[in-house]
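Entry 12.
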Amino acid sequence: MRNAEVIRQWKVLKTIEAGRFTSTAKLAATHGVTERTIRRDIEALQEAGFPLYDDRANGKKVWRLVEGYRQRLAQGFSLSELAALYFSKNMLSFLGGSPFARDLESAFEKIREALPAKSLPFLSRIQDLFSAGPTPGRTTRRSRT
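Predicted 3D structure (tokens):
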């Protein structure tokens, strides 16, 4: 089940990112998988570019995220990139019930706070132009049959 693997890896990353320095054994027990599976998950996250490293705490090996990584993340965006991300919120509404919903809401709130307050009405108008849903968009011409 590929989806379960990706969701588990996301949860592992969130645990480590939250500063809960945890061992491979604890992560394995939490997710009901083997330690080998967790090691593969962490390797996959590292290959995807997440700066995870192992450290020692109380004589045990634990996983951590490189210090300062979170701060560097936000500094790389231009104002227009933040705006584009903000008005893409509607496009991601289909993820509302997914394990990523809270993270997306939190991310969009941070983006909103980083934008000038006067730009928000403008961005809301743009945001209303785009949507994602189960039905196809309107067509401008009738098809000939």
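Annotation: The radius of gyration is 20 Å. The chain has a mean pLDDT of 76.
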